[in-house]
Amino acid sequence: MAPSAIGSSDAGVGGKRQESRVVSLLEIQDLRVSIALSSSTVHALDGVSLTVEAGETVGLVGESGSGKTMTGMAVMGLLPRGGVVESGQILLNGRNLAHLREHDMQDVRGNEVGMVFQDPMTALNPTMTVGKQVAESLRRHLGLSKTEARSRAVELFKMVGMPRPNDQVGDYPHQLSGGLRQRVVIAIALACQPKLLIADEPTTALDVTIQAQILDLLDQLREQLQLGVILITHDMGVVAGRADRVSVMYAGRVVEEGATEDLFHQPMHPYTEALLASLPDLQSDRSRRLFAIGGLPPDLSNPPTGCRFAPRCRYAKDECRANDPVLERQDDTRSVACFFPSTSNRLVEVREATDVVSTGNRVEFSSRNSSESTRAELLEVCDLVKEFKVRSSIRLGHKSGSTLKAVSGVSFEVAAGETLGVVGESGCGKTTLGRLVAGLETPTGGSVRFLGKELVGSKGKGFRSSRRDLQLMFQDPYSSLDPRMRVGAIIEEPMRLQHVGSPSERQDRVRELMGEVGLSLSLIDRYPHEFSGGQRQRIGLARALSLNPKILVADEPVSALDVSIRSQVINLMCQLQELHGLTYVVISHDLSVVRYMADRVAVMYLGKIVEIGQTASLYDGPAHPYTQGLLRSIPLPDPEAARAHRMTSVTGELPSAINPPSGCRFRTRCEYAQDICAEVEPPLRSFGIGHEAACHFPLREPVAESVTEARVLGG
Prior knowledge:
By secondary structure, this protein is α/β, with parallel strands linked by helices. The strands form 5 sheets. A 9-stranded mixed β-sheet has the order 20-21-22-17-23-24-26-25-27, sandwiched between helices. Strands 8-9-10-5-11-12-14-13 form an 8-stranded mixed β-sheet. Strands 4-3-6-7 form a 4-stranded antiparallel β-sheet.
């Protein structure tokens, strides 16, 4: 590489020193961005600097509001209304994009810089086929004809792994799964072979297997096309195995930057340390609360004096509150903005400083569940079936009268005070199962018994009373809260509809619940849009608890939250379980969260439970290949382990639930499948006390048939 005339250097791929002024694909220098609001000005970015080399992936991590997405939007010239670049430079191959006119930026977007937006459903035009949306960029920048653009779109769909590219160019976004929509967005971003790709939370809403596939795809395309990639995420596990370098952002600034291995193995900034300590992983001690960062990020319209992290920092001193640290290089690969950077790995010390969980239900049931005879079943689900009628579609091969088999013969029990985790990919039937248990869907067949009383088909006052004891905590707290109602009225509504208590008693209960979920009473008259994601999740939890239920079905309770807020909500749910003796059914695609919260875990695939057992038994020794694939897809917050782990996850797309495979439904994606798998549905066999799996060729030897009689799922 040619030496720089200026002589400044930076760390590149693999920690090698590279001359940034000459070789850097992207160089952001002291970037300051402000957003003018009606009554204030938000200083969204305050002196951000970073570089990206060709063929390199740089991770941008931090909590919501830290400036990660705003940095990407500034590079794209897509700042929100009122947003301006006050100072600094955005150099793409030496050309400053910071103050280009809009007409010139239109030539850059999509052509030189591509962006994978966070939510593919809102990023795609619902009125246009996905093929036309890819062709649009090709015709605008490359001048291709309609025929040429369509042909190129098919090639791009093949490149990003679309299973039927010739057919799917004619699909609309709503006809595709979340994983396929994300592939379309990637195809659009890469259509004109840009030099730089910005991936903004590309896998946030995806389950672990599709997430692994998308990240593998980005890695392959980066190597194949020598792309520079900025990977924006709040998931530290995602960047661990994917990024060459990581920049940690807090309150509009980069507070630490360095090679991925160095930063994960020995974080120097207290904020980086806190983010890593907040992660629930497969080794998390369930007897301790998860570490959570106290407080909230500062208001960037009026940032505090001194270090912006000082109000939340466990090591802060007077100097931190009075003076503002600058980002300074510590060695060849590390820079940190802290007066007292760590010189040793304190992660274990930080995690162990959290409170020990009291000897309540969670510890009790860990031992109690070892003996099936001592269980007191609160909820019993037997052969539950739910099918939906679908419209005919010649193109997709759906005949009139076809049914979507969402849940197919599911059976399980939940004991009082226990937490059952339900895991699986999107489309496997988890959410439908939760809605059936909570009474929001009517089963096609099967039984749901609560305290021995049948709920399916029941009516009248007694049925309504029983339904109070089963409540659902919805996946998306924003869409499930009425935007026209104040928070107090939202929490009170279930009590009012069920005629519980007098108006004054209900108000007292609302105030009590707000205190329990950690919301200030001063917020009682605000509307949902005035709250953060974590606060809205707390509101949804308070509403679900308003009728004092015995069972709470929590559907993806923390999937959209960043790591620090996620830990707070998980700790809150565990605390409320102990306080009220709650029983949880936790539905999630985050297997690390389920590992920490659940006493037992049920693994669903295409409407069926394929494995169920004690959490430790199932995670430490899975019997079903699908369970093993899910576990191997978990993003690990350890760079070396993550890179060794990622080649063994589940491949391929989930088959259609309208026409599921014969025999074992997982056989089309299973490396161990043989002829019998297509012909005979595997029986559910025992692999230890309380541990069962349905597989002809399991990963472990089943126990003798005499111990637990084999039974066929759904039969």
